[in-house]
Amino acid sequence: MKGRRWTDDEDYVLKDKVLRYIRSGKSQLDAFEEVGKQLNRTPGACGFRWNAVLREKYLKAYHEAKKTRVRVQLERDKSQKIKSITEAIHHLKQYELERHTLITNIEDLSKKIEDVEQERQQLLLEKQALSGGKKQLKWQQEGEIQPYQNLLKLLEWLKKMEDKSENQEQRNIKLAVSAETIDKDRQKY
């Protein structure tokens, strides 16, 4: 089909498609390829026709399409930036919520640690009191037992003294009996 002339309808389709692609931010090469399939022409023939004839003919529309593309890209970038900022704000709020939760948990744990420490101190005081009470009880028991032990020792000593005293009495009685016997025997003689 080499050398086939371009019709006004084909020029219109090529112009319309290329300008639409430019406005939407797509490449002119993609437009040439699509129009080439539609019109049964090569993408190169479409590109040549656009650059050699149609672009100059529709120069004002071409510049408007490029301005629109820039505006669309700026809006898209702005939208993406806003989306990024919105996501960043969301992440910051999420971080703040997690930070607040962690601070609350830390405060709760600190309070529990304080409570446990107070309980531990109380138990230590009770242990010391019981330990002191045990020593006091031991001293008290020793203090109560000691007089009884002293009394027992005294009773044992008294018993020994009594035994000695009895022995002494018995000796005295024996001596007295012996002395009587001797006196009787002396009187006999």
In percent terms, what proportion of residues is strand?
Answer: under 5%
Tell me the number of strands. Answer: 0
Please report the distance between the alpha carbons of the first and last residues: 194 Å
Question: What is the share of helical residues?
Answer: over 70%
Low-confidence stretches: none
The quaternary state of the protein chains shown equals single chain
Q: How would the global form be characterised? A: rod-shaped
- Give me the strand/helix succession: HHHH
Overall pLDDT, averaged? 84
Using only CA atoms, what is the Rg?
63 Å
Q: Let me know the largest β-sheet.
A: none
Tell me what you see in this structure:
Residues 1-54 form the Myb-like domain. It comes from Polycladospora coralii. This is Myb-like domain-containing protein. Keywords: Coiled coil. With 189 residues, the chain is mainly alpha-helical. It has a domain at 8-85. The protein has four helices and no strands. It has helices at 8-24, 28-39, 43-57, 59-188.
